[in-house]
Amino acid sequence: MGRQIKYGHLLHGGDYNPEQWLDRPDILKKDIEYFKEAKINTVSVGMFSWAMLEPEEGNYQFDWLEKVIDSLYAEGISTILSTPSGARPKWLSDKYPEVLRVNEKREKNLFGGRHNHCYTSPVYREKVAEIDRRLGEKFGKHPGVILWHISNEFGGECHCPLCQEKFREWLEKKYGMIENLNSRWCTTFWSHRYQSFSQIESPSSLGENELHALKLDWKRFVTEQTVDFMKAEIAALRETGTEIPVTTNLMYDYDGLDYKKFREDVDIISWDNYPGWHKKEEWLTATDAGMQHDLMRSIRKAPFLMMESCPSATNWKPINKLKKPGMLLAASLQAIAHGSDSVLYFQLRQSQGASEKFHGAVIDHYGGNDTRVFREVTEVGEALEKLQEVTGSVTCAKAAVLYDRENDWALKDAQGPRNEDMHYQECVLKQYRALRAEGLDVDVISMEHALSDYKILAVPMAYLFSEKYEERLREYVAQGGTLVLTYWSGLVDETDKCFLGGTPYGLMDVTGVRSTEIDALFDWESNHGIPEHGNRLGLQKVYECKNLCELSEVSDAEVLMRYADDFYAGSPLVTHKAYGEGHAYYVGADMEQAFYDDLFKGVAEEAGVKSLAEAVPEGVSVNVRQSENAEYLFIQNFSRKEVVVPVTGEYQEIYGTGSEVLAPLQTRVLKFERK
Amino acid sequence: MGRQIKYGHLLHGGDYNPEQWLDRPDILKKDIEYFKEAKINTVSVGMFSWAMLEPEEGNYQFDWLEKVIDSLYAEGISTILSTPSGARPKWLSDKYPEVLRVNEKREKNLFGGRHNHCYTSPVYREKVAEIDRRLGEKFGKHPGVILWHISNEFGGECHCPLCQEKFREWLEKKYGMIENLNSRWCTTFWSHRYQSFSQIESPSSLGENELHALKLDWKRFVTEQTVDFMKAEIAALRETGTEIPVTTNLMYDYDGLDYKKFREDVDIISWDNYPGWHKKEEWLTATDAGMQHDLMRSIRKAPFLMMESCPSATNWKPINKLKKPGMLLAASLQAIAHGSDSVLYFQLRQSQGASEKFHGAVIDHYGGNDTRVFREVTEVGEALEKLQEVTGSVTCAKAAVLYDRENDWALKDAQGPRNEDMHYQECVLKQYRALRAEGLDVDVISMEHALSDYKILAVPMAYLFSEKYEERLREYVAQGGTLVLTYWSGLVDETDKCFLGGTPYGLMDVTGVRSTEIDALFDWESNHGIPEHGNRLGLQKVYECKNLCELSEVSDAEVLMRYADDFYAGSPLVTHKAYGEGHAYYVGADMEQAFYDDLFKGVAEEAGVKSLAEAVPEGVSVNVRQSENAEYLFIQNFSRKEVVVPVTGEYQEIYGTGSEVLAPLQTRVLKFERK
Amino acid sequence: MGRQIKYGHLLHGGDYNPEQWLDRPDILKKDIEYFKEAKINTVSVGMFSWAMLEPEEGNYQFDWLEKVIDSLYAEGISTILSTPSGARPKWLSDKYPEVLRVNEKREKNLFGGRHNHCYTSPVYREKVAEIDRRLGEKFGKHPGVILWHISNEFGGECHCPLCQEKFREWLEKKYGMIENLNSRWCTTFWSHRYQSFSQIESPSSLGENELHALKLDWKRFVTEQTVDFMKAEIAALRETGTEIPVTTNLMYDYDGLDYKKFREDVDIISWDNYPGWHKKEEWLTATDAGMQHDLMRSIRKAPFLMMESCPSATNWKPINKLKKPGMLLAASLQAIAHGSDSVLYFQLRQSQGASEKFHGAVIDHYGGNDTRVFREVTEVGEALEKLQEVTGSVTCAKAAVLYDRENDWALKDAQGPRNEDMHYQECVLKQYRALRAEGLDVDVISMEHALSDYKILAVPMAYLFSEKYEERLREYVAQGGTLVLTYWSGLVDETDKCFLGGTPYGLMDVTGVRSTEIDALFDWESNHGIPEHGNRLGLQKVYECKNLCELSEVSDAEVLMRYADDFYAGSPLVTHKAYGEGHAYYVGADMEQAFYDDLFKGVAEEAGVKSLAEAVPEGVSVNVRQSENAEYLFIQNFSRKEVVVPVTGEYQEIYGTGSEVLAPLQTRVLKFERK
C-alpha cells in the first residue's frame, strides 16, 4: 500500500512561495502569524524553486529553504516539499538544449512556460536526480517534512529525437516482431506498412495522423515515459535513505496521461481541484467535482489529498467568478466527504507579478487578515479541526462506473458515427449522477480494477475492450453482479482493431443482444424511448434520446423499451437478461438523465443496495467514510433551497446544524458507531 | 473520344482491399459468394496496395493480386485496376525524401496520410512509372480487367524546390518576357515587380499572399502539373501495349483542381459521390448531388462512372447518419438517371483498422449477408440488371449553367465587396435548380465549352472572362441563344486584371446595361425587387434579394424589375434586351430562389424548351437519357410526400411502380421508342 | 512645435499611383483635368514606388516622378511626397535576406506583403537612408512639395537575431543590473530568473509567453525601435537641407504601437480614417470615429491631417458597403470639425490589379467623371473651399478621457478576472460618449499628458500607473479638478508588478475607497445599481452593470449608489469625495451607457463646463475650433431623423442650411467672432 503519511489530522494549508519574498523578512514573519490564525498546519514549498536552489550550475543554495522549513516547524506547521523539476532555470536549457521539448510539428521549443522539458533527456534526468538527491540528503529526515511532492502537474509530450528513439524501443519491446505490429495496427491500410521499428515516427499533423493504433500507443508511451521520469525522481530521493512518502499532484480529468499508471509508484494520490462554481447550479458542479474526487480516490481505493484548490477566484478561466459566501467551506468539506484527508490551497500568498499574480490566495496583495477570504479560510480550518477523527477513514462503494482513459482516447479518435462529439464524458456523468442520486458511494474505475467489490457496475460506451475485458464482465455477471452496458461497447481491441463476428464482442450471449447499426443524430434531432407495458423495472415515462441510436437484434432478452420514431420505431432500445447469478442490462441510445435516474433507482432496489440516508433530495450529496469503529455520514446541500434529509438510526452529529434541515451550502457530518 | 469500356451492362460493385485479408482465405472466398448474391459484377482493386505490391525496393509481389483477379474473373466479375500511386510505401519516402510534400509555409511533411507526394519529383515519377509498367505488363491484357484507375482522388499541392523551379519554367513559357508578366500581374502595386522569372516564389502565408494573379496562375500550374503526372502514369501503362481505357476518380466540387483540364487525357470521367442525405430535405440534397453528376457528365459530355458511393453511413463527416430505407436505391438510380453507367461503392468489405474502419461497406465487421445494407445493395443490383439497356445512352441538354473553376478561384480571392462570402456556389445552384424544376436536363459547363447546343445559358457571377468569353457570349446571343447574365460579371481578364471602360465588359451593348456600383449587404439586411407592370415575362411577385446589389445605368433595355429599398429604390434590377436573334437578360442582385424559378419558367417558355413530363412537382427529379433508338425518362420522387407525375405519349415502363403515383424515394423509368 | 505646413487652405486630394500608368500618358493627363474639376489641390505620391524609383540596386530612376510633380504643380496642385520604405523591391530582399522579418515563432518570412521589413537591420536602414537622401536632394526644395510622408502605416514586429540583440541592449540600458530586472519582472515566479541580459529572448508562443513584464517591455521596445527607424529616415532627409515638414500616417486604434511616442519626431500628426458606416446607426459610428479624431489631435494637441479616407466602399472589410448619399460629405466635414486641416482619400485612381483593385477611388475602372462618387467628391471640394478660414484653428477641450496604450497592453495581458474580454475600450468609449453628449470638446489623452487644462478628467480602468500617475491625479484633484475614476484602477506599476497595501494605489485617501474584491460576471449575468436617496448628483434611475463588479470598503466618502443583487447587494458601487479643491468620483462596476450619460451631465454642471449649443439632441455632434479672432461651431446631425439644434448668441453661418433644423447627415458651421 505504500508508505503512510504520519499526520493524524486533516491537513490544511497549501502552496507557498517564500523565495519570492526573501527580501521581505517582515512578510515572511507575518505569514506564519497569519497561518496560525487561520489554522493552517501544512505548507507546500519548492514547486518552482530550482532557479533559487541552484542559481548557477552546481551552486546549490538551500539555506533559505532550510530557514523557512525550520521556522514553520518551530511553529507547528508541517512542510510538503516539492522537487523542483516542474520548471528549469534558464542556464540549464541554454547549456543543454536537449532538455527543451519538441512539439508534434517537430518545432523546438524555446525557454519559457512550465512543463517544457523532455522526459527522456538523459541530461535533464541527471540534473533533476542530482538536485533531488541533494534535497533528499538535506531534508529527507527533517521532522517537519511530511511528504515529497514530485514535480508539479506532470503533463504534455515531447517529440524530440531522443523520445522518438525511446518510443521505437518501447514498441519493439511490446510487439517483438515488426510483422506483429503491422498486423495489430492494420498498417496495410493506405500502404502504411513498416519494415522495421526504426521506420516508426510519432504522430504528427505534418505526417502520420490517422493511424489510430499508432496514436493510441504513442499516448501509452507518453504516460509510461512520464511515470518512468517520476520513478527516477523517487529513486533519487530514496537513494538518500529518506522514508518520507511521495505523491505527485494530478489534474481534473486530464486526458494527456493515463493516471491509473501512477498507482503503483506514489504512496498517496493527490490532485488539484478547481471546479467552476456558480457557472451553473451548484449541485451540478458539485456532482462533476464529486466524480473527479471519486475517480482520484478509486485509483488507489484509499484516502487521497486535495493538494490544490482556490480560496477565492482563479485567474486562468475565461471568466473568474468570486466564490459566494459559504462556497469555500462547502467545497472544502466535499473533498473530505469523498475521501480527501486535506484541504490545501493554491496559494497562501499571492505573487506580486507574472502570470498567476491575480490567482486567489489566502493572503492577497493588500496583505491584511481583515478580508472575507481570510475569514472563510479560517472557518475551514476550524471545521477541519472538528472533523479530525475522520482522518484516514475509507470509502467502501458498492457501485462503480467505468471511465477508462484508454477507452476515452480510442473512442474520440476512432472516426466513427459522430466526429463532432461522441458525448462520452456526458454519458459517464449521467450514470454516475444517477447512482449518486440514490445516495450511493460510487467508485470511478478503469478496466484494470477488480470488480468483485461491486453489486452494480455501469459500463457506458466501452468502445475498447483491453485484455479480455469481456471475459471479466461475463464472470462479474455470472457471479451475481448487475451490469449496465450501453451502445458503442466492445467494438475494438486494445490496438483499436475491430472485432469480427458481431458486437458487443464476447457479450452477445450475456446480454442477448447483437448491435447491427448505429445512427448518428444531428444536434437538432432526437428520438424517444417508449417503455414496454409491464417491464421488470416499472419504467413508465417516455424518455428522449439524442446523438447516437443503436439498432440491434435481440436473440434472447426481455425488451424493456423501444424506439418511438424514425424508420427504426418499434425496434428494441433497452433490454434485460438474467445471466448466471446476475443481470445484464443493455441501453441502446444516448438517453436523457431522467432515464438513467429511473433505471438505476430500479437497479439499486433490485440489487438491494441503499444509502444511510432515508431520502436524498435533488441537489443533496451524501457520502460515507468508514473507520474501524465508525461510519461517518456526510450530508451536503448543494441546491439553492432549504432541504430536509431524514436520517434514522443512532448517530452523533460531529459537525453541522443540529437538525435535518439544511440551508443551501450547509453540511452535516453524522457518526454511526459500529456495534 | 477516347477508348471505350467494353461492358454492355451497368457496373455494380466497388472498392475492394483483398490485401488486407491475405491471411484469411476463408474470407476472400466468402466475399465472392456474397458478391454474386448481391449482383456485383465489378470490383476495384489496388488503390493503396503499393506496400504489398513492392514491399521492398525492386521486390515486386504481384501473385496475390493475380490470384484475386483470376478468381473474380472465373466467377464473371470484372476488375477495375488501380495504379498504386495514391500512397507510397515507407521505404520510398525514407530513401527519397524529395517525394514528400512541402506545404505553403515551406514545412517538409513527414511520412503519413495519403496524398502526400510531390507531383514534380523525378524520383517519384520514375518509381511510379516503373510499378505502373510492371502492372501494365502483367495485367494489361487480362480479359478480366476492364478499366485502369489512375491513382486515387488527385489533390493537394507541393511547394518544394522542384515545384518552385517547375512553376518558374511554366510561367516563363506562358509569359515569355518578365515585363509581360509584370504588366499582366500588375506587380507595380506595392513594389512587387520581378526582374526575372527566377525571382518568383509560390504563394505563401509567410510571404506573397495578395498578388491575385500569382495565386491564380499557381492554381493553374498545380492543375497542369497534376494532369502531367497523371499523363506520365498513363504513358507508362500504354508503353506496355495495354488498350484498356483509363479514368481517374474525381471529387465533389473539389476546388483544388480545375477538372476540365482532365478532359482530354482520360477515356471516361468517374467520380466519388457522397451526398449528406437526411441533413435537410432529400430533394434539396438530390438537387445538389444532381448538379455534381451533371457537372461530371458535362466535362466530356458523355456517360460517366460513379466510382464510389457509400452503401451505408460514411465515417468522415461531422455527423454520419444512416441512410433510411430506400435511400440507397434512389441515390443509386439518380446517378444512372444523370448519365452514370455504374453504381460502385466504397467499400465492399470494411477494413479492420485505421482511419476508415467505420466507413459503411457492403460487408461489415459482423461479416454476414443478413444485414439491411446487404439486402439493399442486392436490390440495387437487381434494379441495374433491369435497366441494362440504358448503358451508354447519352444526355442532350438544351440548357446549361456556367460554373467555371477559374472563375471560382478568382472571384473568391478577389477582395471585393464581400470578403466573408460572395455566395457564388449558391447563386449557381439557384439557377441550376430553377432549370431543373422545369424538368430540363442541364449541362454544367466551363468557359471552354462550346455553346451552340444550348437554347438557354445561365451565366451567374462570371467575374472573370477568359480568352474573350465576352465575344463568345455575344455570338451566342446574336445567333438566337437566350443568355441570363448576372451582377459581378465581366470585371477582370484571366490574370485578374480589371477591364477599363465599364462592365459587364464587352457586353454593355448586348445587355443594354452598364454596372456602376455594387452594394454589399450585411447578413441581416435585404432589399427587394418590384416587377414593372406588364413586363415581358409576366413577373408579378415582390422578391427578396440579399448580399450583393448592383446599381446600373440602362442605356437600351427593358426594365423588368426595380429595387424597392435603400437609396437606390427605383433603380433597375432586372432587364431584358433583344440582341440579334436572341435575348439577353441581366439580373442585378442576389435574388431568392423563387425569382429564378419564375424567371426561368418564363425564359424556357419563350425559348420553347420543355420536359417530357407534363408537370414536375416540387421535389421530383426528371432526367432523360437517349440512345439511338429510344429516349429513357427517369422520374424520381425525392420529396417526403406522394406525388403524381403525369406523362403523356407512348411509352413502356422498364422500371417502376406501374403508375403515375410515386411514393417518397420511388423511381420510374419510361422508355419512348423513337419513331 | 515642429515645422509648419505652408498651405493656408484645407487640403483636398489623396493617394495617387502614377507609376502604375506610365504607359498611359492619356490617363495621366486626364487625371489632372479631373482633379481640378473635383477641387483637388493635393496629391500624395511615392508610397510604394521603390521598385520604380530604384529598379535595380543603385540604378535610380526619378524622372517619371519629377514629371508628375511638375505637371501637378503647373496646374496648382501640391504634392505630399512619401519615402518608399513601406515596401521593398524583390532584389533587395533577395540580396540582403536580413531585411525580411522573423515572426514570433522564429519563422523567417518570404518576400511579399507590405510591412515585412526588420526595423533594426543595418542594411535596410542604409538602403532606405540612401534613397531618402536622393529624394531629399531631388525634391526637398521643390515648391510643389509641401510635406514629407515617412513610409506608410508603420506596424508589426520582427524577432530576428538583430532585433533580439537590440532588445537586450535596450533592456540593459533600462535596468542597468540584471538583478534589477529580475526584481521588477518578478522572474522568481516559475524559476524564470535571468543571470545576464544575454539570456533574454523576445516573447514567443514557442517559449516565454506569460511573463507579462517581458511582453510589456517588448511592446515598448517595438515602438521605440519603430520610432528610431522613422527618425533615421527623417535624419536622412534633413541631411539634404530640406525644410519641408514631416508626418507619418497612423491607423485607427492600432494596438501594435504606442503612438504617443511619435509626438516629438513628426511635425504634424496624420492618420487614416475608415469608419464602418451604416453597420450600425450612423451616430454611433460617428462617435467612435470622433474619438479617434480626438485621440489623434490630442497627441500633439494641434490640428492634424486626415491622410486617408475612402471616397466610396473599402475592399478589405468583411462586408464593404457603399456610402449612402451625403455620408461622404458628412464624414469629411466631421474630420474638419474635430481638428483636421485636410480631407484626403485613398485613392484618387483605382489600381487595375492586385489586392486593392476594388478599393473605392475618386476615379474608378470605368474611368469617367459621370459617377455618383465623383460628384460627391466634388461637393466635398466645394465645401472645403467655403471653410477655408478654419485652417489652422485649434480645439481647447475642458474635458479629457484617459486612454493609454501601455495600460491597454498591460490590462489585456494581465490574466485577471476576465480573460475573455475586459471591455476596456467599451468602458472608455462610454465615458467619451457621455461627455460628447453634453456637447463638450474632449481630449483623449495618455498618462504622459499634462492635466492642468481640464476641468473634468475621466480615468476608466487605469490598471497600470506609470511614473507615479497616482501623484499627478492627486495633485489634479487637490487643485480643483473633477476626477471620475473606475474599478480596476491602480493595480500595478509600469512593469505589471502589483502594488501592495491596497488599491486604487495611492488614491485610497483621495477617493475614500479601498477595493477589496472583484467579481467577474458571465455574459448572461448582470447586477444593478440603486441610487441612494438624495445623492449629490440627483441620480434616480436603476442602472444595469455587467462583466465586472468591484467590491470595496468606504472609509471616507459619500455613497451615491449601491449594488442591488447577489451576495454583495447593498455594498457601495458609486462614491464621491471632495478632496482639496476638487472632486473624486469612484465607479465600481461596468455600468451601462445611461449611467455615464447621467453621471457626466451632473459632473459637467457641477464643474460649470458647457457647450456653445443650447441643447444637443441624440445623434448630433458638436465641435468647436478656435482661431485668434473667432470660434467656429460645427453642428452635425448623424441621426436618422431631422433635429433642431438651438444656438443663441451672435454668429454668422459660414456653411450650412440657414436654419436650426438639420436633416440627417447635414452640417452647419457657425462663426462667433471674438469681441
Automatic annotation (TrEMBL), chains A, B, C:
SUPFAM superfamilies the record matches: (Trans)glycosidases (SSF51445), Class I glutamine amidotransferase-like (SSF52317)
Catalytic-site annotation from UniProt: 153 (proton donor), 308 (nucleophile)
CDD domains: A4_beta-galactosidase_middle_domain
Keywords, ordered alphabetically: Glycosidase, Hydrolase, Metal-binding, Zinc
GO cellular component, one term: beta-galactosidase complex
EC numbers for this chain: 3.2.1.23
Pfam families, per database record: Glyco_hydro_42, Glyco_hydro_42C, Glyco_hydro_42M
Residues reported to bind Zn(2+): 118, 158, 160, 163
Molecular functions (GO terms): beta-galactosidase activity; metal ion binding
List of residues binding substrate: 114, 152, 316
Domain of life according to the entry: Bacteria
Main enzyme class: hydrolase
The Beta-galactosidase C-terminal domain, residue ranges: 619-671
Catalytic function, reaction form: Hydrolysis of terminal non-reducing beta-D-galactose residues in beta-D-galactosides
InterPro entries, A to Z: Beta_galactosidase_C, Beta_galactosidase_Trimer, Class_I_gatase-like, GH, Glyco_hydro_42, Glyco_hydro_42_N, Glyco_hydro_b
Ranges for domain Beta-galactosidase trimerisation: 397-609
Family: Belongs to the glycosyl hydrolase 42 family.
Protein name: Beta-galactosidase
Organism: [Ruminococcus] lactaris ATCC 29176
